[in-house]
Design goal:
The complex is a heterodimer. By secondary structure, chain A is α+β, with helices and mostly antiparallel strands. Chain A contains two helices and four strands; from the N terminus they run E-H-E-E-H-E. A four-stranded antiparallel β-sheet of chain A has the order 2-3-1-4. In chain A, strand 2 and strand 3 form a beta hairpin. In chain A, 40% of the residues are buried. The mean pLDDT of chain A is 85. In chain B, helix 3 packs parallel to helix 21 and helix 8 runs parallel beside helix 14. A seven-stranded mixed β-sheet of chain B has the order 5-4-19-18-17-6-7, sandwiched between helices. Chain B has 26 helices and 33 strands. Classes of the chains: A alpha+beta, B alpha/beta. The interface between A and B is large, with 37 and 40 residues. Strand 4 of chain A pairs antiparallel with strand 3 of chain B, so a sheet runs across the interface.
């Protein structure tokens, strides 16, 4: 059985003044895949081993300088490496 | 490309879609990304009354993903922390999967046939003592089937629903003001208002997606003034520019104080009042209709409510009362009032509901987008099933009431049952039903059996030590519970039935803004769990077979369903899904709805839509149009002139502005019980926690109930953060850990306890005093004392 992966889709609302710093910080996080920011909203996906790790990472993203707000828009549960 | 990469790409597309929607506050043109092996379908969220739509991803018979639905107007692709975990609520490890019968101290599995026979025998032996206690979590077809079973089938009005405990006072408030239930406005008002007034309401935790809609406007640079009027600081307070600390039971005085200033300053909307309003006050004896009064009498009644006097009653500083009067007196700012349990769970709940409506009417803040008094609900179909279908003990479908002969006759004709089948006397309301169940038959306890579906009264009834516990020791009392997980109520039951939940069955529900929403079954329920609606129909059929009611005028089974001239035996579980029973029941119920201009479209129209707000009226081209703003002729097809209260209690197109005096709370803190207790909910858990406590991320975030205390009180009692304390009232006691200056900040002299935790039953402590009109109990105010455990 392969490792379980929880895929979570987020929308990050960027603070106007410090948006570039926020994006730069998020790029450095290996569990994050960034989409294209538009109108101060940055879509991204995080991949973690379980929901607990996802919660912690969402919290951490919310605390990144330049991140005003984080909305979770989708969670894929019950996916594991073996079925991929 | 590996599947993992596809899921990542699909998730990123969903996030991009939602980001676009958020940024522009409009539907983007991007399609949902396809994902191999996962079938996506729409459903409303299972939890609160907001009515967010989710996209549910199913693979190999299991819900594997949940996404906010970007096509949905309600939530625009977003969900709250409960919503995006809603899929996990299906998969707790202890789902009920077999009917269970109590034998002494244990439960034994039995067959469905035996379970249905036991219920039918209980009902048959004395139909007048058999009651159903349902739920705002019932779907519309479930509630309709239950109502039809009881009223048309059994000739009894002993059916009530848990929504009695959360929004009955909103119903009586709407009826007393407009002559018809439910809000005139809708969530679109939140996009247009300049001022949002929260009356004892905490939407940041209870309706977070709606609240984020307002905060999002701020993020886009729009100005929205949030005024928080509450007896304790909450998460919503953090976002409010004005925070008004209200004394418990001070709300009526405050509303009267605002009205007093509007009249004194002449800043009320005289033209609106002249054209559209009349005035009323309580009658003797009190009735929901009250008595008419003149404008001068109204003004005279308000004379004592000067800012300084109201400050004494309400705790709100006189200058802040003047500030609120300034807001209402200004016509160029649009105002939405939001309220929920803080106003409704109140022994003067009906009165306070009418006063909020009255402030909007008096000031003319009504009938324009962004100008609306809007009550919210806590359950997914408190409006659709309880209020519209009419599953309260006095009600019939579509706004009819049992007390009116013409309404009964109309219902009997539509159900094709004999004249006189439906009793004219309302059944027992919730508190009375359970009081009678907990009273010996020899002492007036005329309810011998209650069948509970989709709710948890052992945990949620007020003063449960008096209303619930005694029944479990009385001879001849039999409790049946249909639910999905073991609960405080199933553990005390005599017979437990395992139910299908949410996307394990078809469903239709109605949310807080009159939006009716439909979904299809997507996965199979576990084990032998079955739909609540099937359970009701199976029992009805068993009664029919015993020759106990359930017959129409031609002697046919009242739930008979035909297809191509052949009867489909839907009471047989194996045949239940041969037809879409939901569609049959919904379309039958739909015929009741135009009576109060709550017109619903045919079932098929809801299949494609993300809900439609009633009245839904067919256009000349055959399409169906929903209504966002009732009583305003620019949108409501039934309104004539600019504003038309076409169900006016005075039958003259006028809404009623009530005078309701400030009164005393039924119980106040004293030397023996010196603290006010307020109870309520938290962001992470929904209602009694039976579903959300089984979702690991949610229980980890909020694992147990607590008592929130002010630091000064804690210091005085020698209580440290986390210490266990006993919280006692004159009715019962519960042990809880103290949380000092935690999430909410109750002022000194008051405490707050959430009710989600079945291990710490706060309703052993609460008061069962009810509002005289709505019969809704007060969960927000009683007297308690605290001592270290």
């Amino acid at each position: 059985m392969g490792a379980r992966v929880v895929t979570t889709a987020l929308v990050v609302t960027l603070a106007r003044e410090t948006a570039p710093e926020a994006v730069a910080a998020l790029v450095r996080e290996s569990r994050v895949t960034l989409g294209s920011a538009a109108h101060g909203r940055l879509p991204l996906v995080i991949e973690t081993h379980d929901e607990e790790e996802a919660e912690e990472l969402v919290r951490a993203i919310g605390e990144v300088a330049g991140v005003a707000h984080v909305d979770v828009v989708r969670i894929d549960f019950f996916t594991d490496e073996e079925t991929w | 490309v590996r599947r993992r990469e596809l899921i990542r790409a699909s998730a990123l597309a969903a996030a991009t879609f939602a980001a676009e929607r958020l940024a522009r506050a409009a539907k983007p043109s991007l399609p949902m990304a396809a994902e191999p092996g996962v079938a996506w379908s729409k459903a409303p969220c299972r939890f609160c009354g907001t009515g967010c739509h989710v996209q549910v991803g199913v693979s190999e018979g299991k819900v594997v993903a949940v996404a906010g639905d970007p096509q949905a107007e309600v939530n625009r692709g977003l969900l709250c922390v409960k919503g995006y975990h809603v899929g996990l609520a299906l998969y707790g490890s202890d789902r009920l999967t077999k009917p269970l019968l109590r034998e002494g101290d244990r439960f034994v599995p039995i067959s469905w046939e035996k379970a249905i026979a036991i219920i039918a025998d209980r009902a048959a032996q004395d139909p007048k003592g058999f009651a159903i206690y349902g739920s705002g979590q019932w779907t519309i077809p479930e509630g309709y089937a239950a109502s039809k079973l009881m009223r048309a089938g059994l000739g009894s009005n002993h059916i009530d629903a848990n929504a009695r405990l959360c929004m009955a006072s909103a119903v009586t408030g709407f009826l007393a003001t407009y002559g018809v239930d439910e809000p005139a406005g809708c969530y679109d008002d939140l996009d247009a208002c300049d001022v949002l007034i929260l009356w004892g309401n905490n939407p940041a935790e209870m309706h977070p997606v709606l609240f984020s809609r307002v905060l999002d406007r701020r993020a886009r640079g729009q100005e929205v003034l949030i005024v928080d009027i509450a007896t304790r600081a909450t998460r919503s307070s953090e976002f409010a520019q004005r925070r008004l600390q209200l004394s418990p039971n001070g709300d009526l005085a405050l509303a009267n104080g605002i009205a007093h200033l509007l009249l004194e300053r002449g800043s009320y909307d005289a033209a609106f009042v002249e054209r559209h309003c009349a005035f009323r006050a309580d009658s003797d004896p009190p009735t929901l209709e009250g008595r008419p009064i003149s404008f001068d009498e109204y003004r005279k009644s308000l004379a004592p409510y000067t800012p300084e006097r109201v400050q004494e009653w309400s705790g709100v500083p006189a200058d802040e009362i003047r500030f609120l009067a300034d807001l209402f007196g200004s016509r160029d700012r649009r105002i939405v009032s939001l309220w929920c349990m803080g106003v409704n769970q109140h022994t003067q709940g009906t009165a306070m509901n009418t006063l909020i409506h009255g402030l909007h009417l008096l000031s003319g803040h009504f009938g324009r987008p962004g100008d609306a008094p809007t009550s919210l609900t806590g359950q997914p179909s408190a409006c659709g099933t309880v209020r519209e279908v009419g599953t309260l003990c006095h009600a019939l479908p579509g706004g009819r009431v049992v007390a009116k002969e013409s309404h009964r006759y109309d219902a009997e004709d539509r159900w094709n049952v004999k004249r006189g089948t439906i009793p004219a006397k309302p059944g027992h309301h919730t508190v009375e039903m359970w009081r009678r169940f907990s009273t010996p038959a020899s002492q007036g306890g005329d309810i011998h059996t209650i069948w509970v579906q989709a709710t948890n009264p052992a945990q949620t009834l007020p003063n449960s030590t008096a209303l619930f516990d005694p029944s479990r020791k009385l001879e001849g009392k039999f409790l049946i519970v249909s639910d999905v997980y073991p609960t405080a109520t199933t553990r005390a039951a005599d017979l437990v039935l395992p139910s299908a939940m949410w996307v394990e069955k078809n469903g239709v529900v109605g949310n807080s803004e009159r939006r009716t929403q439909q979904w299809f079954k997507m996965v199979a329920p576990p084990g032998d769990a079955r739909d609540d609606c099937w359970q009701l129909i199976a029992v009805a059929r068993a009664l029919y077979d015993r020759n106990v009611g359930m017959r129409d005028r031609q002697g046919r089974f009242i739930f008979a369903v035909e297809r191509d001239g052949e009867e489909i035996p839907i009471h047989d579980w194996k045949r239940y899904y041969d037809v879409n029973v939901d569609q049959r029941l919904f379309d039958e119920y739909r015929a009741f709805t135009p009576f109060k201009h709550k017109d619903l479209a045919p079932y098929r129209e809801y299949v494609a839509a993300r809900g439609l707000r009633w009245p839904v009226v067919q256009q000349k081209d055959g399409s169906w149009r929903e209504t966002k703003f009732r009583f305003a002729s620019f949108d409501d097809p039934y309104a004539k002139g600019s504003i038309d209260f076409y169900h006016s209690p005075t039958h003259d197109g006028r809404a009623q502005i009530w005078f309701r005096p400030h009164g005393e709370a039924p119980e106040r803190p004293d030397a023996d019980y010196p603290f006010w207790l307020c109870t309520g909910r938290v962001l992470e858990h929904w209602h009694s926690g039976t579903m959300t406590m089984r979702v690991p991320p949610l229980w980890r975030a909020m694992p147990r109930a607590y008592v929130e205390m002010h630091a000064l009180d804690a210091r005085r009692l020698g209580v440290r953060d986390g210490d266990e304390v006993w919280l006692e009232s004159r009715r019962g006691a519960v042990q809880l850990p103290a949380w000092i200056d935690g999430r909410g900040c109750p002022p000194a002299g008051s405490v707050f306890v959430p009710f989600f935790d079945e291990r710490r039953l706060i309703n052993r402590v609460t008061l069962d005093a009810v509002d005289p009109f709505s019969k809704q109990p007060d969960y927000k105010k009683c007297a308690v004392r605290i001592r270290r455990a």
